[in-house]
């Protein structure tokens, strides 16, 4: 018998795969229900912009061709939108791919990555799959990033520090002052990847203006995505902005046709449809206010969020998660380290109401 575990080696066989949110169709099939709602993966509840659907539909007949390897038109469009030179941008199949590219490009043998916990588990999974590891530094009270501890944790062999801002799964953010202080402290050859997947939803006035900081800190790379406010999670497209030399190195590792053409076309149309993005942000802001109010009335402690989801303390997270599932509502339970919590993505007003109704029923507060 061939022993694939042995062939893959300990680093791979001990990996715990990323657990995605349960798909709606799967839950509906299991429960035999029709109207299940998914508030589990921080997706855009407004669906896909009509302009995106139109642009993609029109382009489908050209899909016998390879995509533009350099995402030429999208690059131009995004460069104008962000006011960043085109050669400082790289695209990936979701920002997930950028995480992988960065680790494969820059983390050499004996080096590792650093982040704070709880945060996006993918940093650790990809690091381990690449033969390295992620050192996790605990957060402070109410999941605030502990920059003193992060500073202490930086070693010569720390090649990349991943800082999600706002963070997933907590929704907590750190300020420009905190970031600048950290950037001034760390060695020039330690790369800081700011993961701004939820940046469009932020309304905190002291949130970092990261694009401005790029000029001063060549070791800074900013990562963003079309999966959230732009509503393109299924297309898989994200990007990073950084020093031209950093982007050049990442480009050497990137597969030549990594981002498919449908995704490129979808992203151009999504960038142009400002109305859709504005609406997504508005719905999120209103949903957040509604859920905060409901949680307060229910006496539930929640973590203030700058993103499109809320971490809420329900006592027994796994139990509430399981019971919500049976009611046709998919949220997220985040495992033993956050056992009192569930994470709920902010949905449409109607989805939010259904969630609250079911939650009240489960907590006997109806
Ligand atoms: C903090 C964070 N970074 C990155 C991603 C990855 O996004 P994508 O690969 O869809 O661009 C997510 C997705 O949920 C996230 O929460």
From TrEMBL:
User: What organism, scientifically named, is this protein from?
Assistant: Calditerrivibrio nitroreducens (strain DSM 19672 / NBRC 101217 / Yu37-1)
List UniProt keywords, sorted A-Z.
Amino-acid biosynthesis, Aminotransferase, Histidine biosynthesis, Pyridoxal phosphate, Transferase
How is this protein named in the record?
Histidinol-phosphate aminotransferase
What's the family?
Belongs to the class-II pyridoxal-phosphate-dependent aminotransferase family. Histidinol-phosphate aminotransferase subfamily.
Q: Which cofactor does it need?
A: pyridoxal 5'-phosphate
The EC class name is transferase
Q: Where is the Aminotransferase class I/classII large domain?
A: 35-359
Q: Which gene encodes it?
A: hisC
Against Pfam families, the record matches this protein to:
Aminotran_1_2 (PF00155)
Please state the Enzyme Commission number of this protein: 2.6.1.9
């Amino acid at each position: 018998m061939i022993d694939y575990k042995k062939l893959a080696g300990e680093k791979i066989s001990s990996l715990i795969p990323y657990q995605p949110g349960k798909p709606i169709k799967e839950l509906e099939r299991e429960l035999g229900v029709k109207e299940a709602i998914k508030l589990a993966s921080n997706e855009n509840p407004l669906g896909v912009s009509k302009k995106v659907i139109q642009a993609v539909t029109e382009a489908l007949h050209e899909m016998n061709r390879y995509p533009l390897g350099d995402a030429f038109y999208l690059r131009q469009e995004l460069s104008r939108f962000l006011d960043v030179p085109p050669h400082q941008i790289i695209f990936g199949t979701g920002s997930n791919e950028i995480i992988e590219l960065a680790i494969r490009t820059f983390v050499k043998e004996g080096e590792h990555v650093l982040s704070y916990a709880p945060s996006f588990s993918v940093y650790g999974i990809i690091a381990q799959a690449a033969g390295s590891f992620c050192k996790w530094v605990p957060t402070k009270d109410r999941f605030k990033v502990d920059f003193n501890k992060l500073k202490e944790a930086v070693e010569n062999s720390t090649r990349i520090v991943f800082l999600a801002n706002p963070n997933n799964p907590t929704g907590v953010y750190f300020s420009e002052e905190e970031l600048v202080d950290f950037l001034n402290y760390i060695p020039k050859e330690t790369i800081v990847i700011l993961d701004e997947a939820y940046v469009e939803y932020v309304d905190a006035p002291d949130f970092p203006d990261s694009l401005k900081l790029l000029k001063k800190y060549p070791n800074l790379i900013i990562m963003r995505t079309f999966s959230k406010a732009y509503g393109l999670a299924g297309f898989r497209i994200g990007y990073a902005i950084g020093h031209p030399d950093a982007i050049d190195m990442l480009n050497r590792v990137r597969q030549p046709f990594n981002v498919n053409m449908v995704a490129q076309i979808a992203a151009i149309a999504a960038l142009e449809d400002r109305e859709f993005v504005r609406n997504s942000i508005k719905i999120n802001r209103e949903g957040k206010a509604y859920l905060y109010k409901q949680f307060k009335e229910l006496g539930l402690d929640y973590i203030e969020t700058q993103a499109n989801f809320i971490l809420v303390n329900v006592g027994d997270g796994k139990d509430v998660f399981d019971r919500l599932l049976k009611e046709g509502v998919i949220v997220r339970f985040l495992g033993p380290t956050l056992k009192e919590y569930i994470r709920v993505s902010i949905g449409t007003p109607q989805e939010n109401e259904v969630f609250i109704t079911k939650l009240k029923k489960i907590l006997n507060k109806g």
